[in-house]
Design brief:
Layout lengths: L3 H13 L2 H8 L3 H15 L4 E2 L6 E2 L1 H25 L7 E7 L4 H15 L3 E7 L2 H10 L4 E5 L7 E15 L20 E3 L6 H13 L2 E2 L8 H9 L4 E5 H5 L9 E3 L7 E9 L5 H19 L10
Parallel strand pairs: 3-4, 3-5, 7-8, 7-9
Antiparallel strand pairs: 1-2, 5-11, 6-9, 6-10, 6-11
Helix pairs in contact: 1-2, 1-3, 1-4, 2-3, 5-10
Amino acid sequence: MPTLRQLEYLVAIADVEHFGRAADACHVSQPTLSQQLRALEERLDVVLIDRRNPGVELTPVGREITARARRVIIEVQDIRDLARRSRDHLVGTLRFGVTPTLGPYLMPPIVAALHREQPDLRLHIREGMPEEQALLLSRGGLDMLLGPLPIEGGDIEIQPLFRERLFIVAAPDHALSQRAKLRLSDLSGAKVISLEPRHHLHRQVAEVCADLGMVLLRDYEGTSLDSIHQMAASGVGLAILPELYLRSDVGGLAGVKVLDPKGWNFTRSIAAAWRSGAAYGDAYRAIANRVDAEARALLGTPRVGAAPR
């Protein structure tokens, strides 16, 4: 029978398509990895890797076996987690994925609260694009993730959490900032800056621009919410920013003014996700509820930057 370690080597090859990088990921030498993959092929009496090409390519049966091997590895990890879990609280390291447009502005108080409540739990927080993190989650590279809906992936349990408002901001000397009252129609033709297209927020901003006739500037895409904020403050264009960012100490309203056109009610929905049937599923659900409660408390204070009507 194949060993678990041999299956891990095969999955690593499938993920990085390079013997050297796969060996590094598995913390073994390249000759060891190659030898064990040869032994796996001999044990199964099939060719898993086509070595005739300059790169690394799995054979058709190799791809099928790798898909099953990945599921086996995830199941074994869940068994290990189940064996380690405490009756009352989580122990060990939780690999937690979060979108960069949310994590820095929400996670600090949550991390502090979880550390007080579960001192044996360690959070390894990894920021990344939602689609990439959903893939990592389904492959066992993450235990849990937090991000905007939709979250798509196989064998994933999704728990919708809170809804976060999106606000439109401009430099104080922008023409729209000078108006006492604004309507949505006043935004038509206004130039808007946003993040690069890999971000979910970029796609949502593009939809808002299409709905309201605003112009999304493709030549001024930012790499972070801070860069968008700073460009808006310098007068490059309007920016659409999430409420938690505007409320945070690392974000805020410095150099910009929140516009309040009548009828503006755009939001984004945030959810948590973990693998279906995960050993710590109940604990992940409790953490998701804790995130939800903390976010709702932060968002429950008076509205950001807008004067009462």
